[in-house]
Design a protein that fits this description.
mainly alpha; about 425 residues; Growth Hormone, Chain: A
C-alpha cells in the first residue's frame, strides 16, 4: 500500500485495505519476535545438555559456565547488530530489515540443531556454537527495534501504544513456546534421549518456522511514514533533534524493564529454589505463569497508554517497584508457602508489563523517521546488554557480597529509580504525530 493510498483511507474506520495491511504488519512483526525468544529460551533450558556436548573441561561446573558465557555472547553482539541493521533499515526500509533479521534468526536457529559436537570435531564445535550465537545476537539486535518501529509506524495515531504492546506480547509467546516445547519433549522422550540427540529437535522445529516467517514478511507493505520520508529526505533532515540527548534517555529509561524481565523470568527460577523453597517443577510453573502475566499486563498497559499517555504507566510501574520490591521479596523469602512465592513472582512481572506496554511506542516516538532504527536499536541494545545481560550476575554478586537474599530488591529499586528519573526528563509523545 502506498503512502497516498494509506493517507486517503486511514481516516475511514474499517477501511478494508488499511485493515488488511495492518493485520499483515502485526503478523510480520510478531513472527520474528516469537522465533527470536523461542530460540533464546530453548538455549537457556538446554544449557546443561549443551555444556556436555560442546565443552569438555573435566569439570561439569566449568562446562556449564562456558555454555552460559556463549549465551552472553548474544547480548554482547546485540548493539553491533542494532547499529548495522538500524543503518540498513533507515536507508533501505523497514521491510528489507525485517527480512534480513528473520533470515539470520531462522538460519542460526537451524544451525544450532545440526552442529557437530565436541566428540565429533573437537575444538571446532564450541567455535561453531559461538558463531551461531553471534548470528543470533546480531539478528536480535536489529529485530527488536525493527519490529517495534514497523508496528508503531503502521498503527493508527490513537492506537500506537496498543500496537506497540503487541511486541512484548509476541516475546512472551516465544518464551512460553520455547519452555513448552522443551518441557514436552523432555517428558515424552525422557532425559536420556534428550541428552543423546533429542536436544536438537527444539532448534530444528524453530528453523521450520523460517519459510513461514519469510513468506509472511515478504507479503507485507513498507510503512507509509517511511515511504513519505524517503520522498522528502531534506525535510526530515531539517528537524531539530538533539540525537545525543535522545539516545541517552532511550538508554536510561528502559533500564528497569530489562532488570525486572531478566530477574523475574531468567533468574527467579534459581533464586526461588535456593532461597524460597520451591521445587524445580514448581519454579518452572511459576516462571511460566509469570511470563503469561507479563504478556497480558503489557497488552492492557499498551491499550491504556493510548488514553493516559506513555509516561503515566511507566512512572507508576517505577513507583510501585521502588515502594514494594523490598516488602514483596521479604514476604516471599519468609512465607515458606509456595503459592506466596509464585504470586510474588507474578506481581513483579505484572509491574514489568505495566512498564513494557507503552515502552515500544515511547521509544519509536522519540526518534525521527529518517534515523529511527539507527538511534533506537543502538540505544536500546546497549542498555539491554548492560542492564539485562548482566542482571543475573549482578543479582548473584549482591547476594554473595551481602550474605542476604533480600539484597536482590536493592538492584530492582536502583533500576526503577534510574528509569523514573529518565522518564521525568522526557516529553510526553503519545499525542504527537510521528516525527
Amino acid at each position: 500500500m502506498s503512502a497516498e493510498t494509506y493517507d486517503n483511507a486511514v481516516d475511514r474506520p474499517g477501511e478494508a485495505g488499511v485493515v488488511r495491511s495492518q493485520v499483515r504488519a502485526i503478523a510480520a512483526a510478531g513472527v520474528g519476535n516469537v522465533l527470536e525468544w523461542y530460540d533464546f529460551t530453548v538455549y537457556a533450558y538446554l544449557a546443561g545438555i549443551l555444556s556436555t556436548k560442546f565443552f569438555v573441561t573435566g569439570n561439569e561446573s566449568t562446562a556449564l559456565l562456558a555454555t552460559f558465557a556463549v549465551f552472553g555472547v548474544g547480548f554482547v553482539a546485540r548493539p553491533l547488530g542494532g547499529l548495522l541493521i538500524g543503518l540498513f533499515g533507515d536507508k533501505y526500509g523497514r521491510k528489507p530489515a525485517l527480512l534480513l533479521t528473520f533470515l539470520m534468526i531462522a538460519g542460526s536457529t537451524g544451525l544450532m540443531g545440526i552442529l557437530p559436537t565436541y566428540a565429533s570435531i573437537g575444538i571446532a564445535a564450541p567455535l561453531l556454537l559461538v558463531l551461531a550465537r553471534l548470528l543470533q545476537g546480531i539478528s536480535a539486535g536489529g529485530e527488536w527495534g525493527g519490529a517495534a518501529s514497523f508496528l508503531v509506524e503502521w498503527a493508527p495515531a490513537h492506537r500506537r501504544g496498543l500496537y506497540g504492546s503487541l511486541h512484548p506480547c509476541a516475546i512472551t509467546l516465544g518464551m512460553l513456546l520455547g519452555s513448552g516445547v522443551t518441557g514436552a519433549l523432555t517428558s515424552t522422550l525422557g532425559s536420556a534421549t534428550m541428552a543423546d540427540w533429542g536436544w536438537r529437535i527444539p532448534f530444528l522445529l524453530g528453523a521450520l518456522l523460517g519459510p513461514v516467517g519469510l513468506y509472511v514478511r515478504s507479503k507485507v507493505d513498507e510503512t507509509p511514514i517511511f515511504q513519505r520520508t524517503k520522498r522528502a529526505p531534506e525535510a526530515a533532515a531539517l528537524k531539530d533533534f538533539s540525537m545525543a540527548r535522545t539516545m541517552l534517555l532511550a538508554f536510561a529509561f528502559p533500564a528497569v524493564q530489562s532488570v525486572v524481565t531478566y530477574i523475574s523470568v531468567g533468574y527467579f527460577s534459581t533464586f526461588t529454589q535456593k532461597y524460597a523453597g520451591l521445587t524445580p517443577a514448581a519454579a518452572l510453573w511459576s516462571t511460566s505463569l509469570a511470563t503469561l502475566v507479563m504478556g497480558l499486563s503489557s497488552l492492557g498497559s499498551g491499550w491504556l497508554s493510548d488514553k493516559t499517555g506513555r509516561k503515566f504507566n511507566m512512572l507508576l510501574a517505577c513507583a510501585l517497584l521502588v515502594l514494594l520490591s523490598y516488602p514483596l521479596l521479604s514476604l516471599a523469602l519468609g512465607s515458606g508457602t509456595p503459592w506466596v512465592v509464585i504470586m510474588t513472582q507474578s506481581i513483579f512481572t505484572a509491574f514489568c508489563g505495566l512498564f513494557l506496554g507503552g515502552m515500544p511506542a515511547a521509544l519509536v516516538e522519540m526518534f525521527p523517521t529518517a534515523r529511527r532504527l539507527t538511534g533506537l536499536t543502538t540505544a536500546y541494545n546497549i542498555q539491554s546488554m548492560v542492564f539485562g545481560g548482566f542482571a543475573p550476575f549482578i543479582a548473584s554478586w549482591l547476594i554473595v557480597e551481602t550474605g542476604a537474599p533480600i539484597s536482590l530488591s536493592y538492584f530492582i529499586i536502583a533500576s526503577a529509580a534510574i528509569s523514573g528519573l529518565a522518564l521525568l526528563m522526557m516529553a510526553e509523545t503519545s499525542r504527537k504525530a510521528l516525527p
